[in-house]
Amino acid sequence: MEQDAQLVQQCLQGDGSAWEELVRRHTRRIFNICYRFTGNRTESEDLSQDVFLRVYRTLGSYRSAHGGFATWMTSVTRNLLIDHYRRTKRDRITDSLEDTMAVVENKESAGRRPDQQALLGELSSQVQSALTRLSPELREAVILRDLQQLEYGEIQRVLAVPEGTVKSRINRGRIELARVLQQMGVRPS
Amino acid sequence: MTWTCEQTEAHLSDYLDGFLQPAEQTAFDLHVNACQRCTPLVAGVSHVLGSLHTLEQVEPSPQLVNSILAATLGPQSWRNAKRWLRSFQSPRFVYSVVSVAATFIVILAASGFFSHKPKLADLYPTTIYRNADRQAHLVYARGAKFLSDMRVVYEIQSRLRQDNELPTTPERTVPKSSPNGQPGRTDKTNPSSPRQQNRADEIGRNLQVLAAGCPMLIGFFGERRVP
Q1: Domain limits of chain A?
Q2: Count of domains forming chain B
Q3: Residue at B130 is within a domain
Q4: pLDDT for B179
């Protein structure tokens, strides 16, 4: 964290190599948040680039007293993801209809050929698919807690909601995810 | 403690994260083990958590970092150029450049490059050497002449000082040791005023000639009263 703050100071003084170091340190984490939220590689890379662009332009507004640089970046990422979610809502309505059809087909196919159904995809891709079906509020809470391993306090700062709301969203997100996976035919072994 | 299905659903994450108090945890376990509705729920969410924790980080494409850097700092070539230019900002390099430039200017000034309209031919090494040699000799000759002039001036000043210290009034200059002394006598005890006057006149004339010859001395002797 201190190293991040030091790199930020160097960036603000015009040190390009410090910015390069910051990008290299955080690209993977930001990309993963975007990927788990959208489930699409190309979209996630574009979003990651947008996140770093916004961070680069607003770097002067970062205050280390308000939290770590990683938390601040996560907050910027979350805001961009929500913007992206609202922007692409219409496209997703069509997609969700197709997904529903696919689930029905999967259920039917699972009834006929369970051995092939088990081979259709790995568990991670199923979980990823289930994640994208959660509402954005529940999805971001689960991603930050269970995939990014953030503490409740950090999630509270990122989402800018009370801690009770954070806990509630994480709890509901997990239960909803279990239900979606059950609908997809994935059951606990 | 009685425990309901709603409580189980509301505190499920606390239970899985280990945030429940011992009494609550006991009640939770007792209820879940006995409830057919809550048992699959807890098992399903536990399975989800395990699945989430086994998810590995996805590697972004190697071009992502470069595209981010290009979008923020500019293209790779421009970044390299900026890094190269930044290396010139070190104090050691600046001092070196300044000292080299100062040396170059001194050499050019010594070769007379700035004394007239510069030409390309003045930059030839032979021309620079010839001009510098001539300029050095000129400076040396001027210095030698200046020192010689100063020596003359000093000598004249010394003589004037000596003359001013001697009495010029005949009545006062007649020593008691020679009561019979007369003006114009050449004995050393009584410097005669006419002779002294003649010498002072001669020095005055010399000074005028010298002042005419050396313009720099005009101011110096202009204020002096020539006898």
Answers
A1: 1-87
A2: 3
A3: no
A4: 52
Model pLDDT for residues B66-122, shown as the tens digit of each residue: 999 999 888 877 777 777 777 777 778 888 889 999 998 888 777 666 766 777 777
- What is the average per-residue pLDDT within B39-43? 92
Three-class SS state of B72? helix
CATH architecture of structural domain A1-87: Orthogonal Bundle (1.10)
Residue B99 falls inside a structural domain: yes
Residues of A in contact with B47 (CB under 8 A): 178, 181, 187-189
**Inter-chain residue contact A174 with B13, CB threshold 8 Å:** yes
The Cα–Cα gap between A136 and A177 comes to: 12
> Do B142 and B214 fall into the same domain?
yes
Let me know: does A121 contact A176? Beta carbons within 8 Å. no
Kindly determine whether residue A175 and residue B68, on different chains, have CB atoms separated by under 8 Å.
no
- ipTM at complex level: 0.76
Domain span including residue B40: 5-44
Assigned domain for B180 exists: no
A13, amino acid identity: Q
Contact B69/A at CB under 8 A: yes
A30-69 tens-digit pLDDT: 999 999 999 899 999 999 999 999 999 999 989 887 788 9
| Min distance B137 CA to chain A CA atoms (Å) | 53
Of the candidates A73, A66, A1, the one whose C-alpha atom is nearest the C-alpha of residue A33 is A73
Contact predicate B6/B35, CB 8 Å: no
Minimal CA–CA distance to A55: which of A38, A74, A42? A74
Residue B62 Cα, gap to closest chain A Cα (Å): 10
Option in A52, A177, A189 nearest B68 (CB): A52
Residue at B128 is within a domain: no
Per run of 10 residues, the mean pLDDT along chain A (length 189 residues) is 86 89 94 93 94 94 85 93 84 54 43 45 79 93 92 91 94 94 81
CA distance B37 to chain A (A): 13
* Residue B40 and residue B89 in one domain: no
Q: What are phi and psi of A148, to 5 degrees?
A: -95, -5
